[in-house]
Specification:
The chain is mostly helical. The protein is built from 7 helices and no strands.
Length: 162
């Protein structure tokens, strides 16, 4: 039972840390995009990354730079996005502490992971996001669901032992 709980907490702890790190990356968005633009434009000339991906990163970087310089308050939206990640991560502390009692939080997390895929595909198309980037966004839902499913399976194993 202790081994199952250990694996559960390590997995869910990594999931929580991933949410927090993801939230933190929303704050230095301009800097991150300028670094990515530099990396991808160099790599595109060396054919390391697809040229279309390099162009997309440059386009997004240009859009964020222009928007932030003229309308800096738009950055406030990504500040709230980061904060939202922190709040979501905080909800997972409950099942981290008591897996059996708060397993419903894991189901809600799974539903949210499914929602990530829907939003990426529906809104991505409406907003003109390239399909390959929509798939990258969808991967967050898929990779987020995997540890939650694993934790749910571990929770069932602890119920069978008790």
């Amino acid at each position: 039972m202790k081994s199952v709980l250990f694996h559960y907490r390590v997995t869910l702890g990594l999931f929580i840390i991933g949410l927090v790190i993801s939230g933190l990356t929303t704050f230095p968005l301009r800097f991150e995009l300028s670094v990515l633009t530099h990396i991808f434009t160099r790599s595109a000339s060396n054919h390391t990354f697809p040229h279309g991906l390099a162009r997309w990163i440059q386009f997004v970087d240009s859009g964020v730079r222009e928007t932030y310089s003229r309308f800096p308050f738009f950055g406030y939206a990504t500040d709230w996005l980061g904060f939202g990640h922190f709040v979501i991560a905080a909800f997972f502390i409950l099942p981290f502490m008591n897996p059996e009692r708060y397993r419903a939080v894991l189901y809600i997390g799974l539903a949210a992971c499914g929602g990530v895929i829907l939003v990426a595909l529906i809104c991505g198309r409406l907003r003109g996001i390239p399909l390959y980037w929509q798939f990258i966004d969808c991967s967050f839902g898929v990779f987020g669901a995997a540890p939650l499913i694993y934790c749910l399976r571990l929770t069932k194993r602890t119920e069978n032992v008790a």
